[in-house]
Amino acid sequence: MIWIALHQICVICSTFVCVLAGELGNPYTILGVHRKASSQEIRQAYRQLAKEWHPDKSKSPEAEERFVEIKQAYELLSDADRRSLYDRKGITEDDFYKRPEKHSFFTQSPFDDMFGPNGAHFNFQENDITFFHKLSITTKQYDKIILPKSETTPYLLFFYTDWCFPCLQSAPYCRKLHDSLEPLDINFVTVHSSREPNLARRLNVHTLPCLVLLIEGNSYVYKESVTNVPKIIEFIKSKFPYKLVTKLNEDNLEEFLDGWSDNRIRGLILPHKIHTRLRYLVTAYHFRRHVAFGIAETDSIHNKYQVPPDMDTVLLFNENISYPMASISMKDIPTSTLYNIISSNQYLALPRLSSQKMLDELCPCEWNQPKKKICVALITDDSSVHDLHRQSFRHYAQKFPYSTEKVRFAYIYHRRQAHFISALRPDGENMEPLLRIVLFWRRDTSLIRYEWAPVRWELESNLNNSHEKLAETIVRLLKSSETFPYEAYVTDLFDEHAIGFVKKAIMRVSQFLESIYDSLGREQILPALSVLGTIVFILGIGYLMAHLVEKEEEIIKKKRADDDSGNNNNNSNSSYQPELKLHELRSEKYNGLVRLLKPGCRTVLLILDVQSRQQLIPPFHRAVWPYRKNKTLHFAYMYIERGLTWYKELLQLSLFEERELNINPRNCVGTVLALNGHRKYFCVFHAKHTEKRKTLTKSTDTPGQKDCESGAFIGFNSEDSESESEEILLQGSLLDGLSNWLDRLFEGTTQRYHINYWPEFPIK
Q1: Parallel, antiparallel, or unpaired for β 602-608 and 672-676?
Q2: What CATH architecture applies to the domain 577-754?
Q3: Burial class (CB in 10 A: 0-12, 13-18, 19+), 610
């Protein structure tokens, strides 16, 4: 039984597709091309058949019907998506949505036995799906029609699929929403999510059913239930541009009405209820390029204009703010009525050519029109100096006898539209365009035919002359036999109302963040917050660690500066740089600086006492500074009071003397030792040690011979040193020859004293 039922379903589906394909007709057969025909071949076949079967050229009674079939077939095959859909399934999008109305296939199918004799279940579904199909759009229609129109008209997009039961349940509310918003000029359309998956992804649709609001090309996802119509209306109100309708009271009313310098008229809304109705927001959005709307919030404004308190009133003002140029009062003003009144009065008495769009509206191209429409523009400067000239020209325009259908008066700023005005200067004439009047007729978007008025627009004695000369010129050019003497190619006008780069970037970022927020559901918000919290935590920990390290470095630097400065005020300390570190040789550092040195490494050790430290450290530091980047060298100093026994034993091992040496510690101050811990030898520098003879070594000429000179400089006994120290050396000059000795040390020419082992350093 199951196999039989499945077989019946397959037969029914195949029959359904075949019937529909037969009704639509084969577009390839209609155009007479094969299935693999290229776009160029399809276009050529269409052009040939269209010329043959055009109703105006063919006398056949079937010409009109045949021409429609040819056009529909060409539209199908010229669209790559629709052609692919037809090749795969034999159907098209537009005809598919109309089939439930033409065919009661499901109500006559074998499933009637399962769902009742009348097929009530499928009839209910069919009616709802039919409603959605009637309003359904494609991605191509969205890009070419819906998206551009959203700049002036809001759109509600309802995403659905055929077998989405929540979508079917929301159908009555969608009908109600459609019937409520259509009179307000808010278009309600539907999108089949399965057939347009790319559009659903572009608009961040994650669940079905889904309602998306489209305003100014920006999409906003409605996250609440679509069954609550009042909430949807509040959602639409909240997504209109910021300050679309200004709230007015006694303080800012006059300032609002007097702000027509932005080239827009003023629309004053006086409602009998406090809240702003949706129809006024839609109207303000539609005409926001030409009209600035404000809504009165106090009764004093109603009393000032003496409007009925139980009716809604809309007043339109141009440059004359004392009296409205148009008004309407009704209990419920229809949107169509508002549109008609505003469309007839959407320009100032003397508008400004402030953008290319304004030029196209006031002075349209008329290359195919039999009657010319002349534009008369006064060239002024953007300053209050020319206010009186513009006011005088405005009065002249209002009193001009010809209608605005033939003559349109306007003014233009010289500095802001310098490229446009300079293109209208006749060749070879160096004229000043300020306060001059140019009369022009636009043949197409770039070609303008023009003539300059013979006199400037003056205010005093020549005013009547200006009026007469201008009127004569206009009347003469309106004649069909007259032509303009000059023509020029011009570029588009500079948009004076364009948003700046910074403001545009801020708006783009805010819109992007708002779209992300609208597109995120509850299941996406928690992971996003988790990732964001993790990033913030990592950045916070990193900043805290960096701050602690910086604080610790400051403490260490301060401590080093205090240790190095001490109580000494000597200027030589100011040259000390802490980049080279000097270690103090003590018992805990002895192994690292001497005994356990790696092969090739040496320690340069300065011997001093407490009294000579401040005088010997700076010159020692300057002498070893050039070798600070040598990684095989360590630099240290040793107090002779602490290491006297170690130093005595070191000398004893190098001299191979059995008797105990008598060393004077004062004679050892200023001695520098270069210790090679791995090879167990050292080199000695002292101010009195000239190294003329290689003594104090194992290979002496006479074993056991005593060298009194060498013994004197290292302080073997005090008697010799005292008797032979004819030259008295100051502590500050003890290290004068250290730099030369270091050069000879690294050249390998200094004398080396070898030992068998390193003695122990005293622990104190």
Answers
A1: antiparallel
A2: 3-Layer(aba) Sandwich (3.40)
A3: exposed
pLDDT for 404: 61
**pLDDT digits 0-9 by tens, 163-181:** 888 898 899 999 999 998 9
| Average of per-residue pLDDT across 672-680 | 93
Task: Return the pLDDT at 370.
Answer: 56
448-474 pLDDT, tens digit each: 999 999 888 877 555 567 788 888 888
- CATH class of domain segment(s) 356-489: alpha beta
Q: Rounded to whole angstroms, how far apart are CA atoms 497 and 499?
A: 6
pLDDT digits (tens, 9 = 90+) for 532-553: 889 999 999 999 999 888 888 8
Contact between 672 and 633 under an 8 Å Cβ cutoff? The reply is no
Q: What is the 3-state secondary structure (H, E, C) of 568-624?
A: CCCHHHHHCCCCCCCEECCHHHHHHHHHCCCCCCEEEEEEECCCCHHHHHHHHHHHH
Long-range pairs, 718-724, Cβ under 8 A, ≥24: 718/662, 718/664, 718/667, 721/664, 721/667
Q: How far apart are CA 269 and CA 79, in angstroms?
A: 47
Cβ contacts of residue 194 below 8 Å, gap of 6+?
A: 161, 162
CA–CA distance from 654 to each of 172, 554, 651 (Å)? 111, 45, 5
Confidence band (pLDDT; 50, 70, 90) for 140? very high
CATH code given to domain 240-344: 3.40.30.10
The owner of tokens 């209109």 is: 240
Q: Looking at the predicted structure, is the pLDDT value of residue 697 above 60?
A: no
By CB neighbour count within 10 A (0-12 exposed, 13-18 middle, 19+ buried), where does 681 fall?
middle
Lowest-confidence pick of 268-282, 309-323, 565-579, 712-726: 712-726
State the alpha helices, DSSP H only, in 182-222.
Answer: 197-202
Give dist(CA 189, CA 159) in Å, integer.
Answer: 9
Q: What's the pLDDT band for 277 if we cut at 50, 70, 90?
A: confident
| Residue spans per domain, the chain | 2-200, 240-344, 356-489, 520-563, 577-754
Q: Name the residue among 354, 375, 353 with its Cα closest to residue 363.
A: 375
| pLDDT number for residue 371 | 66
Query: Which residue, among 260, 570, 196, has the nearest Cα to 390 in the 3D structure?
Result: 260
Place of tokens 């001497």: 594
Report the C-alpha gap between 593 and 675 in whole angstroms.
9
Q: Please measure the distance between the N-terminal and C-terminal CA atoms of the chain and give it in whole angstroms.
A: 106
Query: What's the CA gap between 697 and 681, in Å, rounded?
Result: 11
Radius of gyration of the chain, Cα coordinates, nearest whole angstrom: 49
In the chain, % helix, strand, coil (3-state, to 5) comes to 50, 15, 40
What is the structure's pLDDT at 514?
65
Q: How far apart are CA 741 and CA 686, in angstroms?
A: 10
* Distance (Å, whole) CA 414 – CA 421: 7
pTM: 0.56
Integer Cα distance of 625 and 686 in angstroms: 19
Please determine, for residue 196, whether its predicted confidence score (pLDDT) is greater than 90: yes
| pLDDT tens per residue across span 327-342 | 999 988 989 899 999 9
Written as six digits, the tokens of 280 are 């006024």
Determine the 3-state secondary structure of 296 from DSSP. strand
Q: Are strands 210-215 and 155-160 parallel, antiparallel or unpaired?
A: antiparallel
Non-local CB neighbours of 760 within 8 Å, separated by 6+ positions: 646
- 252: which 2 tokens? 């800012």
Higher-scoring residue by pLDDT: 507, 342: 342
User: What's the CA gap between 681 and 755, in Å, rounded?
Assistant: 6
In this chain, the answer to whether the domains covering 356-489 and 577-754 adopt an identical fold is yes
- pLDDT tens for 398-429 read 888 766 678 999 999 999 999 999 998 887 67
Instruction: Specify the CATH number of the domain 2-200.
Output: 1.10.287.110
